[in-house]
Amino acid sequence: MDPQLTSIIVPSEEIAHIEECLSRLVEDTGSDYALLLDKSGQVISSKGDGDRQDITALGALIAGVFASSREVAKLLRERDFRASFQQGVRENIFIALIEEQWILCIIFNKGTHIGLVKVLTKKATDELAAVLERVRQQHKARDEVLGSAFRTSMEDTIDLLFRD
Questions:
Q1: Tens of pLDDT along 87-131?
Q2: How many angstroms separate the CA atoms of 138 and 27, rounded?
Q3: Which terminus of the chain is less hemmed in, N or C, by CB atoms within 10 Å?
Q4: Helix, strand or coil for residue 87?
C-alpha cells in the first residue's frame, strides 16, 4: 500500500508543475476555481478566484464527500467512485480522485459545459498522477537514505555505549 501523502512535503518544483496544471485547467475550461487536495482535505494548491475565503473548509468537506462516496460504493459492490458532479443554482463542482491520494476539484458556473470540464479534468488528472508518482519516488528515495543513515548512526552509538 502506498504511504499517505499527508506526511510528505511536495517539493517546490513539483508545486510549480501542479500550479501550472491547475492554471491551465481553469483557463481552458473557463472555470472559476481549481483545488488540489490530499485525501484528508488538506489543500496542496489552488488556482482561480482569489477572493475565496473558505478554501480550508471546502477542502475538508470535499474530502468528506469522497469518504462517504467510498462507503456508498461499497454498499453498491463497487470498488469506489472516481468522480462526482454536484450541480447548484449558480455554481457546479466536479471532483475527481487522482490515484488513491489526491482529489482534484473544479468549481465552475452555468456558462461552462460539463463535458468540457470532464475531458480536460481527465487530462489534468493524468498529468497530476505523474507528479504524484514523482513525489512518491522522491519520498521513497529520501526515506531509504535517511533510514540507512539513521540505522548506521544508531548502531555506532550503541557500539560506543556497550563497548567492552
A1: 999 999 999 999 888 999 999 999 999 999 999 999 999 999 999
A2: 30
A3: C
A4: strand
pLDDT of residue 107: 94
Cell digits of residue 87: 450541480
Cell output for 41: 482535505
Torsion angle defined by CA atoms of residues 4, 38, 40 and 35, in that order, rounded to the nearest 10 degrees: 180
Residues 6+ apart with CB under 8 A from 92: 85, 86, 107, 108, 109, 110, 112, 114
| Stretch 62-68: mean pLDDT | 90
b (16+ CB within 10 A) / e for 133-155: eebbebbeeeeeeeeeeeeeeee
- According to the CATH classification, is domain 5-161 in 3.30.450.30? yes
Amino acid identity of residue 116, one-letter, is L
C-alpha to C-alpha distances, 74 to 1, 67, 70, 77, 80, nearest whole angstrom: 19, 11, 6, 5, 7
Domain boundaries, the chain: 5-161
Where helices occur in the chain by DSSP H, the ranges are: 12-29, 55-75, 114-161
